[in-house]
Design brief:
Elements (H helix, E strand, L loop, with lengths): L5 E4 H21 L2 H9 L4 H24 L7 H17 L8 H4 L1 H14 L5 H21 L3 H15 L5 H24 L3 H22 L2 H8 L2 H14 L11 E4 L3
Antiparallel strand pairs: 1-2
Helix pairs in contact: 1-3, 1-6, 1-11, 1-12, 2-3, 2-4, 3-4, 4-6, 6-7, 7-9, 7-12, 8-9, 8-10, 9-10, 10-11, 10-12
């Protein structure tokens, strides 16, 4: 009797693809944190450190693409490890207390390839992995907002200047960040304790808005930062679809890629 094919949701594939493209663009436009850490903590030359990031992200993307087309179930491990070491490098590069939340804040992008790997291994629990990672991502960012992360203050001031041509004061920005932070934490807790499609749609909307702020603030390099955060809005959209799959039909977003002979 033939086993049923493994089916990977389209949204998860698409999100990981955008994330990998974002990591590639970021490494080539700005140089990644892994190379920076090598340069600062070892005796590696500037050129070696700079191009090591390029090599790693190209290897990761190539391994993932070839592994996918060859129907190898191990290919998600490459983007998982790259994302993990990307976050690890940021953690060690920054002494600010706010950056101690980096693993929590990057939870969605780290967990995404791991969840796909679980699907390919025919193991249960990939949705649970995504729910926990998404909740931690929102709780982590909410905690940073409550602590008035300096970059978040800059985002608010710059956004108000660009959109309404009137910059917020630092005090007003801190007050708004506290409200945003509390809202993020509440959404993260609901995601864990009482998941529902409305909560996920709100998370998807807010995750998309905050990702787009990187483009507004950082300019061209912001596009790569936006793509790297695709999991912040596509994972909750996927989870909302999972919650709604018995109530409504969204055939395009329920599209799957079969792995026939694994």
């Amino acid at each position: 009797m033939n086993e049923s094919p493994i089916r990977v949701p389209f949204l998860l594939y698409f999100s990981l693809f955008l994330q990998l493209v974002g990591q590639l663009l970021y490494a080539f436009s700005n140089g990644g944190p892994i190379g920076s850490l090598l340069f600062l903590e070892t005796s590696a030359s500037d050129n070696f450190s700079y191009y090591s990031d390029h090599f790693l992200v190209i290897f990761c993307l190539s391994f993932a693409l070839f592994g996918h087309f060859l129907k190898k179930i191990s290919w998600p491990l490459a983007p998982f490890l790259y994302s993990f070491f990307f976050s690890t490098s940021i953690f060690f590069l920054h002494s600010s207390f706010a950056y101690s939340f980096v693993f929590i804040c990057h939870g969605a992008r780290i967990a995404l390839p791991l969840a796909i790997f679980f699907i390919l291994k025919k193991k249960k629990g990939h949705d649970i992995i995504l729910k926990i990672a998404l909740a931690l991502t929102f709780i982590g960012h909410g905690s940073e907002a409550i602590m008035s992360h300096p970059q978040f203050i800059d985002y608010l001031i710059n956004t108000s200047l660009e959109l309404i041509h009137f910059p917020l004061s630092e005090e007003s920005s801190r007050s708004i960040l506290f409200f945003i932070g509390m809202s993020d934490i509440v959404l993260g807790i609901i995601c864990l304790m009482a998941p529902n499609s409305k909560c996920y749609f709100i998370m998807a909307f807010w995750g998309g808005i905050t990702s787009l702020l990187r483009v507004l603030y950082h300019g061209d390099i912001g596009y790569s930062m936006f793509l790297m955060r695709s999991s912040h809005f596509l994972i909750p959209f996927y989870l909302a679809n999972v919650e709604n799959k018995k109530k409504t039909s969204l055939p395009f977003f329920q599209k799957v890629y079969p792995y026939e002979n694994i």
